Amino acid sequence: xxxxxxxxxxxxxxxxxxxxxxxxxxxxxxxxxxxxxxxxxxxxxxxxxxxxxxxxxxxxxxxxxxxxxxxxxxxxxxx
Length: 79
Description:
Elements: E1 11-14, E2 18-22, E3 44-48
Antiparallel strand pairs: 1-2, 2-3
């Protein structure tokens, strides 16, 4: 069964440099009805301001897929 979660029903945070919507519980957003789907734990819709980004951090036991719709993005892993 496919359930559509519209933007208004998802977790939203605007950090100034990052405007993000969380489909599943993530970071400070917790929704026990939306913890993930099988082994998929994170689907975030992030808009990163130009020249900004996430600080260096590791990713243990996960794969990351990023779709860039406009502009360019560089991603480095601390390992």
